[in-house]
Amino acid sequence: MLILEITTKNLPILKIIYFIKSLLSIISIVIPVILIITVVIDLIKMLTNPNDSKKHMKTLTTRSIMAICVFFIPLLVNFIMNLIGQTGVESLEYWNEATNDNIKVLEKKKEEENISKRNETSKNLYINKSKAIINSANNLLNKDDKIVSPEIKSELSSLVKDLENKINTSDTKEIIDSYNKLNSKVEEVKKTLPKIEENKQPEKYIFVGDSRTVMINDAVGNPENTSFVAKVGMGYSWFQSTAISSVNNIINSSDEPYYIFFNLGVNDAVDGVSANRTITNNYISSLVELSRNEWKDQRIIVLSVMPTSDNTTYNHKDSAVVEFNSLMRSGIEGNDNLLYCDVYNGIGKNNFSYEPDGLHYTNSMSKTIYEYVINNCKL
Questions:
Q1: 112 part of a folded domain
Q2: What span, in angstroms and rounded, lies between the C-alpha atoms of 38 and 45?
Q3: Which of 133, 144, 190, 194 has its CA nearest to residue 167?
Q4: Enclosing domain of residue 226
Q5: How confident is the model at residue 3 (pLDDT cuts 50, 70, 90)?
Q6: Does some domain include residue 109?
């Protein structure tokens, strides 16, 4: 029975102590046996060679004493450690608890903890996947009734609400079941949407953004089907003066359409609804105009601005990002040529990993963002 409040975190320590105790037990048996054998040999030598009896007797006595000491020393150490441990010295109580039975109990508990962690990981994974499919469903709900009928929208809306409720209240299995139902319906509806000509289906991507997009470019390199129009510290003014013409140069050099992923805003987002509304209105006006003219044959996807850490060393507050995203999302609703992809909630705020500055993301996180966008933000 465990005397000390020992958790699975202590399991490696207990295993080491148990190994030491086992080693001492082995030593207390093996070494004396070896010494006894040598004593027997010395005894035989003494009997066969009486002239050296004094020498052999001395050796025999020494080895006998050594055998007795080696036998009793591990027992004495074990006795002392157990005795001190029972007095309440915490560091030595581990010596008492380092038994095979206790180790088996903790190993079983460790396995149960691992299973629990795997279940939690699976739940978080499906929560993130659920948010992504909810985003896709909302994009369908925003389409004109001529494209997606009110009856289908009603069914989609019901499935979305069911999944949202399950995310907040249910276990992993129920979340997966609701996710599969909505995912199946979304895929079914997508198949009924008007198709772009087969030879015009976008297979190339353009990412437009700031330093975060620059870091995505650094993380994934230069994939053959992806172009990056990005610069550190940029926002709306640069988008108007430079980025649009750069994107035009890319799309005009190819007969194939592109997915254009718009990833600006973190440098524009500020505290205050009125200030954010001004800049988001400017962005939306530009994007709507582009979607009807220069970029009308492209798929324009507006990505949500992704979160900032609460400990960022920059003056970029996450509350401003959330407000900016809300205004952008509501502003583009009803514009059939613009789609919104909520990467912020799709990946999940707490799942982003940051550089020390709390604003930019790690190399592996930048790769994850790229893969998420490519896999979840196309329609």
A1: no
A2: 10
A3: 133
A4: 197-379
A5: very low
A6: no
